[in-house]
Amino acid sequence: GESVGLHLPTLSVQEGDNSIINCAYSNSASDYFIWYKQESGKGPQFIIDIRSNMDKRQGQRVTVLLNKTVKHLSLQIAATQPGDSAVYFCSNRPGNQFYFGTGTSLTVIP
Amino acid sequence: GAGVSQSPRYKVAKRGQDVALRCDPISGHVSLFWYQQALGQGPEFLTYFQNEAQLDKSGLPSDRFFAERPEGSVSTLKIQRTQQEDSAVYLCASSKPGGDTDTQYFGPGTRLTVL
Predict the structure, then answer these.
(1) What angle do CA A51, B33, A107 make, to 5 degrees?
(2) Would the CB atoms of B102 and A97 count as touching at under 8 Å?
(3) Do the chains contact at A44 and B43, CB–CB below 8 Å?
(4) Separation of alpha carbons B95 and B105, rounded Å
(5) Could you read off the pLDDT of A74-96 as tens digits, one per residue?
(6) Measuring CA to CA, which residue among B37, B36, B4, B38 is closest to residue B22?
(7) pLDDT tens readout for residues A47-73
(8) B107 CB contacts (<8 Å, ≥6 apart)?
(9) Does A77 touch chain B (CB under 8 A)?
(10) Of B76, B80, B52, nearest to B65 (Cα)?
């Protein structure tokens, strides 16, 4: 099987600060990882992805870091804004299925 | 363009009733996934289609759950004899593998409440 867990269920940051959300996975066969943002009443929304042959990927205000040695994934959000408040899920894929963690609820304090 | 749509958005069923949940994927997306999301949890995989073929149904919790995608586009998740533990949000996602990304695009979900 597979277990995916986030290190903190909740995270509060001041507007303008950087946010770091962490995730651990167990299956070393995972070849693809995605971070999702889910707002209340909506489905998960793609933020950024990374394949297992990379260790870092940057998007607009977001960076994903992958450490395959310790099976750890992180999402960094620069200059966090109130609109970033949501639940964030990491997801990995060992095979056909995608596995999701339990989510970190990010609250941005104005 | 249009995203993934799901209907109904909300469904209340009495225990023992059958329900059918519909998913309209993004046009041209080959892969379609169904997930169950309990309150406060991440989505859990139920089943996966590639075109009309159901390639993986290992996540379906019991034989009361049935999914189909007869023409390789719209999909229906059917739950027979609903139980209270079936109460959850059912999410559908579609993707078009083979490009730069294998990401799944999710619909808004159907919130099922079984009384």
Answers:
(1) 65
(2) no
(3) yes
(4) 6
(5) 999 999 999 999 999 999 887 77
(6) B4
(7) 999 999 999 999 999 999 999 999 999
(8) A43, B3, B4, B5, B6, B23, B24, B91, B92, B93
(9) no
(10) B80
Count the alpha carbons within 13 Å of B106 in the hemisphere toward its beta carbon.
26
pLDDT at A98: 86
The C-alpha R_g of chain B, in whole angstroms, comes to: 13
Interface of B with A (CB under 8 A): 4, 33, 35, 40-45, 48, 55-56, 58-59, 91, 93, 101-109
In a mutagenesis test of the B interface, which of A30, A39, A50, A97 is the best target, namely the one with the most B β-carbons within 10 Å? A97
Residue A25: which residues within 8 A CB-CB, separation 6 or more?
A2, A3, A4, A5, A33, A71, A72, A73, A90, A92, A99
CB contact under 8 A, B56 and A96: yes
Distance of CA A98 to the CA centre of its chain: 14
For B68-81, b where at least 16 C-beta lie within 10 A, e where not — what string? ebeeebebebebee
- Cα-flanking dihedrals φ and ψ of residue B85, to 5°? -70, -10
Residue B41 corresponds to which tokens in the numbers above?
């949890």
Interacting residues of B77 by C-beta distance below 8 A, sequence separation 6+:
B20, B21, B23, B34, B46, B47, B65, B66, B67, B90, B92
Q: How far apart are CA B10 and CA A39, in angstroms?
A: 17
The conformation of residue A38, written as its DSSP 8-state character, comes to E
